[in-house]
Design a protein that fits this description.
Two copies of one chain form a homodimer. Chain A has about 400 residues and is of the alpha/beta class. Chain A has 14 helices and 15 strands. The first copy, chain A, folds into two domains: about 190 residues, Aldehyde Dehydrogenase, Chain A, domain 1, CATH 3.40.605; about 130 residues, 3-Layer(aba) Sandwich (Aldehyde Dehydrogenase, Chain A, domain 2). The model of chain A has no long low-confidence stretch (mean pLDDT about 95). Chains A and B meet through helix 1, strand 2, helix 10, helix 14 and strand 12 of A and helix 1, strand 2, helix 10, helix 14 and strand 12 of B.
Chain lengths: ~400, ~400
C-alpha cells in the first residue's frame, strides 16, 4: 500500500459515503466479485501464505494451523463472503415509525456506522470475513492484522479491493494499517480516526486497546463466566453443562471458569468432580481461583449457601460475559436471569452458546461486554447506527 | 453529602443492582414519593433557591431566570416526575426473539444501562428530571450541577433521595458530585466510574468532557445545521422553514446556521433575504461563516450548483446533527435523506423539531450526535442496554 497512515481516514470516510449511498444490489455485487477474485487468485494466495507459514517456523502448532491456507480453506474464504452476501441487508430497516399530530412522519432507520478498525491476530480468514461484513453493512474498514500473516493479508487485501473496484465501488472501503504496534498506537490516539475499534482475539492486544484507544472499543473485556448449580438442579443437566462449558473449548471467552454449587446440592459434588476431573479439569477452591480467567483446563469451585450467595459471587467476580444457572425451579431461573448483569444469561444451557453463528446472526465480527451500543455477539446489525428521517409538508416549530 | 468521591461509584453500582431487580411498580412508587416530597417541601426548596438567586447577582438575566424557582415552577417539577412515571417502562421489553433448532429459546431484552453521570448548568429542573428518568429506566445516577445552583441542588437531592428511601429503594440511586471542576476531571478520568456521561448544555463544559473523559460521552458534539432550498422548492415552505430553523430559538443546537440555495432557485433569494433580515438575521456568504456555529441571529448563505453541491457542502461543514431539504422533487428528497449523514434529516420541515418531546419520546435527557449507542434525542430507551436471555433444557455445544 502506498497509502500513508494519515491518508487512511479521509479515504475511508469518502469510501464510506459511497457505500452508504449504495443499494443492497451493488453491495452484494461487490461481495460476489470479491468471492470470484478469491477463487481466481487462489494459487497466488496460497503461494503468499506459504511465505508466512515458513516465516512462522517455531511458533506453536495451533498458531501455524490457524495461519495456514489450503485449497479447501481458500474455497472456504470465498464461501464465507457469499454467505455474508446472502444475509439480509440491515441498512434502511425501519426501527420505529410514528406520525405526529402536526402531520410530521418520523422513521428511525438503520444506517451504516461509518469507519471500523478491526485489529486481529494471525488469522487470514478475518481479513476476508471482516471486510465482507463491513461492506455488507455499508461501512468502510481499516484492517490491522498480524505481522506473522503479512504476505497473506497483503494479497487478500489486494484481492478484496480488486473485487470491490470491479463492482464499481471505491476500493478504499477496505484499507490496511501496518503491523507496527507504534503505528496502531498513533492511529487509535485520534478519536476521529475511526468510529469504533473491534479487536478479535488476543488478550494482550485487547487490553492494550482498552487502555490506550481514544476511539471507542467494542470488545469482550473479560470472560470470567460461571455455571451455578442450584438447589433444584437436574443432576444430568448439571454435569453435562459444567463439563461442556469448561472443556468444549477451554481457551475462549465464553468458557466457564468457576462452578458454583448450592449447599443443598452438595450431594452432586462427587459426580461433578468425577466428570470434570475425568475430562482433565483441575478444580481449585481458593479465592484466587475465583478471580482468575484460566482459559485452560482449570476451574474454580465454590459451594454457596443460597441463590443470593451465587448472585453475590457473580456480581463480585464476573465480567458480564456469559452466566448459567442449572435449575428446575422457575422462580430461581427468573431471579437469576433478571439479576445477573451480563451480556448473556443461560438457564439450563452451556455458556459456550454465546456466539453470533449460534444465535442465528449469520456471522459475527466479535463479542462485546460493553454496556453501550452493543452487548453480546456483534453481527451486521451491530455494525450500524440510526438516523431519524422526518418528512413534512412545510411544518415549523411553534 | 458525607459521601466521599471515591465511594460514589461502589454505592451507585450497589443501588443500580437493586433498581435493576425492581419492577415497574416499585420504580413508579419511588417516583410518586419523589413528587410528593417535592410538594411537601416546596417552601424549603424555594428558600434554598433564594440563596442561590441572591448569590447569582450580576449574572445575565437569562441565567437568573433559568435558576429561579417559584411556587408554580416547583409544582412543575413534581408534575414532570409524575409524567416520567406515566411513561412506559422500557425495561424487560423483548427486542428480538427466536427459537433455535436445538430448542434453545433466545430473547434479547432491554435492561438498565447502569450508572449515568449527568453534568449540567444552573438549571435546577435538570436535577429532578434527570434523576426521574434514570430511576424509571432502572439506573443509578450521579448528578453534577452548577455552583450557581448549589443550595437548590442540595435540597432537591435530599428531597429526591428521601422519596426513593420512602419507597424502600436505596437512596444512593441518586448521588451528587461536587461542583469543583477538578473533582469532575478526576471522576471522568476513571473509565469505570460510570457507564456513560451525558452533558446537558454548556458548550465549554461539553468540549471539556469530550476532550478529557475516559467514560463515554453521549452529546451533540456540534450543531452546524443546514437548510437546503432545492431547485424545486415551494417558495412559501422555503421561507417559513428557513426563518423558523434560524430564528425560533437561535441559541440551541438544532437551529440552522447556513442556508444553501440551488442556483436554479436563485430567484427566491430576495424573498429569503427579506424574510430573514426582517427577522433580525445577519446573512454572511464567506467560507468562515459556513464553518461557524453562530448560535445567534447570524446565518451563512451559499448558492450551490446542484443537489450534489449541497450534499458536498453538508458533508464538509455539517456536524451530523439536523439537516433539512425543502423540495417538491421526490427523487431529490430520497437522495438527501439517504446520503446526508446526520442524526436527523428533514424533508420540508424545520430542523428545530429534533427534540425528544417533539418526537413523542415523552422526555429527553439530551441529544446525541454520536454514532455509537444512540443518535438523536436521548429518551428512556437510550438509557438502557440489552441482555440475551437463553432458556434451554440441558443443551450443550457440540
Amino acid at each position: 500500500m502506498a497509502v500513508t497512515e494519515q491518508a487512511i481516514t479521509p479515504a475511508a470516510r469518502q469510501a464510506a459515503r459511497a457505500l452508504a449511498a449504495a443499494g443492497q444490489g451493488a453491495k452484494n455485487d461487490a461481495l460476489e466479485a470479491i468471492a470470484a477474485a478469491i477463487e481466481r487468485r487462489a494459487g497466488e494466495i496460497i503461494a503468499e501464505n506459504r511465505l508466512d507459514v515458513e516465516g512462522a517456523d517455531g511458533e506453536r502448532p495451533a498458531i501455524i494451523d490457524r495461519l495456514t491456507l489450503t485449497d479447501t480453506r481458500v474455497a472456504g474464504l470465498a464461501d464465507a463472503v457469499r454467505a455474508v452476501a446472502a444475509l439480509p441487508d440491515p441498512i434502511g430497516t425501519t426501527i420505529r415509525e410514528l406520525t405526529l399530530e402536526n402531520g410530521l412522519h418520523i422513521t428511525k432507520q438503520r444506517v451504516p456506522l461509518g469507519v471500523i478498525l478491526i485489529v486481529y491476530e494471525a488469522r487470514p480468514n478475518v481479513t476476508v470475513d471482516a471486510a465482507a461484513l463491513c461492506v455488507k453493512a455499508g461501512n468502510a474498514c481499516v484492517l490491522r492484522g498480524s505481522r506473522l500473516a503479512r504476505h497473506t493479508n497483503a494479497v487478500l487485501l489486494d484481492v478484496v479491493r480488486e473485487g470491490i473496484a470491479e463492482a464499481g465501488m471505491p476500493p478504499d472501503a477496505v484499507q490496511a494499517l501496518g503491523e507496527d504496534r507504534a503505528e496502531l498506537a498513533r492511529f487509535v490516539a485520534d478519536p476521529h480516526a475511526a468510529d469504533v475499534v473491534i479487536p478479535r482475539g488476543g488478550e494482550e492486544l485487547k487490553d492494550f486497546l482498552l487502555e490506550t484507544s481514544r476511539i471507542p472499543v467494542l470488545a469482550a473485556a473479560g470472560g470470567n463466566c460461571h455455571v451455578y448449580v442450584d438447589a433444584s438442579a437436574d443432576p444430568a443437566k448439571a454435569v453435562a453443562i459444567a463439563v461442556n462449558a469448561k472443556t468444549q473449548r477451554p481457551g475462549v471467552c465464553n468458557a466457564a471458569e468457576t462452578l458454583l454449587v448450592h449447599r443443598d446440592r452438595e450431594t452432586l459434588l462427587p459426580e461433578l468432580r468425577a466428570a470434570l476431573e475425568g475430562a482433565g479439569v483441575e478444580l481449585r477452591e481458593d479465592e484466587e481461583a475465583w478471580a482468575t480467567e484460566f482459559l485452560d483446563l482449570k476451574m474454580g469451585l465454590r459451594v454457596v449457601d443460597s441463590l443470593d450467595g451465587a448472585l453475590q459471587h457473580i456480581a463480585t467476580y464476573g465480567t458480564g460475559h456469559s452466566e448459567a444457572i442449572v435449575t428446575e425451579d422457575a422462580a430461581a431461573a427468573e431471579r437469576f436471569t433478571r439479576e445477573v448483569d451480563a451480556a448473556a444469561v443461560y438457564v439450563n444451557a452451556s455458556t459456550r452458546f454465546t456466539d453470533g453463528g449460534e444465535y442465528g446472526m449469520g456471522a459475527e465480527i466479535g463479542i462485546s461486554t460493553n454496556r453501550l451500543h452493543a452487548r453480546g455477539p456483534l453481527g451486521l446489525e451491530e455494525l450500524t447506527t440510526t438516523k431519524y428521517v422526518v418528512v413534512g409538508d412545510g411544518q415549523v416549530r411553534e
